[in-house]
Amino acid sequence: MKVTSRRRFSSASAAALPSPSKPPPPSFSLTPSQDTISHLCAQGRFGDAIALLSRQRRLLPAAHRPLDLPSSACRVAAAAAASGRPLGLLLSNRLLDLLAKCGALPEARRLFDSMPHRDLCSWNTLIGGYSSCGDLDEVRRLFDRMPSRDHFSWSTIMLRAGVRPNGFTFAGVLDALSELAMEGPGRQVHGHMMRAGYDPFSFSASALVHMYSKCGNIDRARAVFEGMPKPDLVSWTSMVSGYAQNGYPEEAIRYFELMLQAGTRPDHIAFVGVLSACTHAGLVDKGLEIFHSIKDEHGMEHTADHYACVVDLLSRAGRFEEAEEIMDKMLMKPDKFLWASLLGGCRIHKNVRLGEQAAEALFEIEPVEKVRKTMDRRRVVKKPGSSWIEVKRRVHVFLVGGKSHPRTEDIHAQLEKLHKRMKEEGYVPDTEFVLHDVEDEQKEESLAYHSERLAVAFGIIATPQGTPVKVFKNLRICGDCHTAFKFFSRITQRVIIVRDSSRFHRFKEGSCSCGDYW
């Protein structure tokens, strides 16, 4: 029977060879020959060639597909590129899908990169292709670049990363979602885990706790945590850090103490979490107590991160003599993070002498000219500040001064209205956050269109009154924007939540949960 089938397919292919006078219909064979594909490409009938190969891949069992199917798909892609005639978005997406499903990812990537226009289907197709071969690092990079994202993109990863996703798959995807602060897709992954037979003892449970806490849903993180029969160190640390970053330092300290009572030995990361909680709450004495306990009670050596935390804690409180005393006793050389922490405290308290010392130390560690030359040599581009917000299962990304969003006019109109109200209530722009050598009026305009402000303004006009506006930023929030959002929250009577690279800021009725410690 198999021989007969092959003969039938072979005969059909031979009989279907096109003649110049009468082009064949697109569906003339399930196994078009290489000559057939080449002839269609020569005639510029790329759509017919793609349709034939796609139909063959779809209808024939895998064991019966010709071995040259991927090369045929690549031939179509090469011919289309050489023709100089754009395929158009629809045909490009079809060819991209064919290449990805045939495993021809280098060719799929070349086609994707050459497309003048891409839609969500284009991105999801390439993401699915990399997911199928298990390249989740490339998946994360692509997903981070997407101008618009939806839940399907991450469900694509889940469904294609393996026929039966296991704990490693779930943990890997949840970790990626944590970094992107994508709670919606994270809940979807949680659903996949439940259907796959969720194991509360597994490390994927810890990944769930981490994901929810990083996304700002500390209540859901706690619910998952409390369902774990025996939380591990990672889960305890996620809860401590989660409460600290979400503006609940007392709860962070309480969970740290509960961890000790449960007999779980903290590692240096857990101590960083609880010290950060003390820093953001201004609990200097408690922070010092915990810092000294690392060595005195737990027999651990202080790390550079611990020193950076305690110097940050003391300098934010203006206790510079104690900070310098601790630095003098360090057994290691202060790194750039410690000096940056000290410099931040000096800026708050206008300590020029120590601030200059910290700045000089930073320049010695990383001279500006050396860094610039290294960046030029490696073709490294400075990471741009970006902010994003999820509305109706779609993620909207904003860059400083960006005008590509379809509702740009509405967003700018909303900002102008808010800025007018703010100035009436006493707001004065802090133009020192603009480093360009321009007039004050231009500096004010630059501040007005920072990425986080664009995202918050969009959230205000795109979500129902009374619902919180939750925005995420890849860098530290601008100090002037921090002040502006206090006004925004009072003027609009909305809760505004901003997660920057440091922590969550919850603005409500004119104040922030961080207490201006961040």
TrEMBL record:
Keywords: Repeat
Region Disordered, annotated ranges: 1-33
Ribosomal protein in keyword set: no
Gene3D superfamilies for this protein: Tetratricopeptide repeat domain (1.25.40.10)
UniProt GO molecular function: RNA binding; zinc ion binding
PPR repeats: 119-153, 232-266, 303-333
Gene Ontology biological process: RNA modification
UniProt domain DYW: residue ranges: 426-518
Protein name: PPR repeat
Record's compositionally biased regions (Low complexity): 10-19
Pfam family, one: PPR
InterPro entries for this protein: DYW_dom, PPR_At4g14850-like_plant, PPR_rpt, TPR-like_helical_dom_sf
